[in-house]
Amino acid sequence: MYDEVINKILESIDEKAILRETYPKFSGEGYRAHKIDARNFHEINKTNLNKKIAFVDGGNAEIIGSANFSLNLIRVCYVIYQNNKKITSKKFEILAFIQAINQNNEIQYKTSFFKIRNHIELDEITFNSFDHTLMLGINRAEISSVANAIRRFAELKTAKIVSDENLADIIVLDGNMQSTLTNENKYLNELYESCTKSNVILTALSKTSSLFTDNGNLLSVVLENISIFPSWFYYPIVEINSINHKAEMFFAKFHNKSKHIFRFEIINVQREKGEETINTLAGNCIDPIFIGYPYGLVEADRIARISNNEKESLKTIFLIKLKNKNIEKYLSSVNAHEIIDRISF
Description:
- The chain is an alpha+beta fold.
- The chain has ten helices and 15 strands.
- The protein is globular.
């Protein structure tokens, strides 16, 4: 049985099939893919232009929650590097309480923000519980999923602060520039406008990519197998004509020893800056901790991450204060999995 499974896996990653790939595969309207062509590979030449690069990332953790409310700590930060030296960083935090309310005979998830240290201001955020940008499948979205959206909005707001204050020449977001959440375009458009006005280059880098070719292969694997340079970027890939994705897309291998290919985007009005920016960013991708990946994003992730110890400490504080407030019946609506996990362990 196992041999049959192994053969099936090997069949699915047939190297010979890669040579027959023709086009990347994009879902949705507004994408016109270019045919895969070895002539679209360009060699990366690391440059040191003394540019300040701001890396932006965020993290979040649910402190306490039930099926109808969720208290979350959200942390976002920027870290600025110049000539591979960290010159400054700043983190912002949000304490967000999300509750289910009945509004116009619909269950809505409404958020209240509480000011804590280094607070960042966001507009009022309310999602319909059947918002398709939060749902998984056909069921009502879980209330805790709203926190991920808040984190994304906070990351974009943090990047706008960097741009408004002209703190860097280049901004690198963790992720991509596609708007997939309700009201996300508002924050993206404000950021685009600020970067254009401040002449700050806005980019995004995805740690993972699930883009396929038309034959079902991973695009990143196909490109790696037919690449002709030790470190490279691939362009053009696709023409994007979508109000929800105002970006120019590249794929890049930032270091010759890297085993990872990353999706890289730059706002479409700055597309002529793409090659120069990739060459500049490659200079920050030489740390052996994660070679081929910008160390600034590693550091931003470290600062923004909320540890389990921190989460449990806050949880204890709130549970003590809520003791004898009849909250256990609400928490029990979602903690059955935790109990099973403890029993199984």
